[in-house]
Design goal:
The radius of gyration is 21 Å and the shape is elongated. It has three helices and no strands. The chain has helices at 2-27, 35-54, 60-107. It is mainly α. Helix 1 (2-27) packs parallel to helix 3 and helix 2 (35-54) packs antiparallel against helix 3. The longest helix has 48 residues, at 60-107.
Length: 108
């Protein structure tokens, strides 16, 4: 019965992670993302998997741990993508500001 409760908890988290990944992907920015938090969650799943393996427990709960770990790891790729988008946006903004200053000089 304890495995059922543990699996249910993991499934609840497992439903949350894809939602988080999609929200982060759609936002296109790292402003509301925490890479440290993501690594902390990944470490937790790795330790959970290690505990199952060290106890010789190979059941459906272990599979749920691995699936959750995989989905949480997607957030790292989304973070890297969003960071590049942030850098492009900053560069574009800097170019626009520079062009505006040049145009102001031409007008004056």
């Amino acid at each position: 019965m304890t495995e059922f409760f543990e699996a249910t908890m993991l499934i609840c988290f497992g439903i949350s992670w894809p939602i988080s990944v999609m929200k982060n992907y759609k936002s296109g920015t790292t402003k509301n993302m925490s890479l440290r938090f993501t690594f902390l969650i990944i470490a937790g799943y790795i330790f959970g998997i290690a505990a199952k393996l060290m106890n010789g427990v190979h059941n459906f709960v272990l599979v749920v741990y691995v699936l959750n770990l995989a989905v949480v790891m997607l957030n790292i790729f989304v973070y890297a993508r969003n960071k590049k988008l942030d850098e492009r946006a900053r560069a574009s903004c800097t170019m626009t500001i520079g062009m505006t200053k040049e145009m102001d000089k031409d007008i004056a």
